[in-house]
Specification:
WalR-like, Sig_transdc_resp-reg_receiver, 5 helices, phosphoprotein, alpha/beta, about 50% helix
Length: about 130
């Protein structure tokens, strides 16, 4: 089964291009252009990994991360930003983000992190099944 990825980013060109590139790598990818849209997408259908932009106008990535961790704790979140903001990185990691990557991110690096995060997500799901 392909890893399920939800890309959440307000930059349409980045979203379309990254989704296409990840699909070519065998991932099942859905796209959301805002934090609210991303949360609605998770309500409709879960994902193994959310690749989440930090800087968005409606809800920033930290607000979205907080909601994901409250409502969908098994979902792993990779945070992306175009700004070298270490405070945001530290805050996101403390709130449970799987990792934090700088834009522009190399596709091979992102794919590796998605695979690691997806593996953790599946293991969390298996543990819940044993409870």
């Amino acid at each position: 089964m392909a890893d399920s990825i939800l890309l959440v980013d307000d930059e349409t060109q980045f979203l379309v291009t990254m989704a296409k590139r990840l699909r070519k790598r065998g991932f099942f990818v859905r796209e959301a252009g805002s934090g609210q849209e991303g949360l609605r997408a998770l309500e409709a259908e879960s994902a193994d990994v959310v690749v989440l932009d930090v800087g968005m106008p409606d809800m920033d990535g930290i607000q979205v991360l907080r909601e994901i961790k409250l409502r969908f704790p098994q979902v792993q979140v990779l945070m992306l930003t175009g700004h070298a903001d270490m405070e945001v990185a530290i805050s996101g990691m403390a709130m449970g983000a799987f990792d934090y990557l700088m834009k522009p991110v190399e596709l091979d690096v992102l794919v590796g992190k998605i695979r690691e995060a997806s593996s953790r997500s599946r293991k969390a799901g298996e543990r819940r099944g044993l409870d």
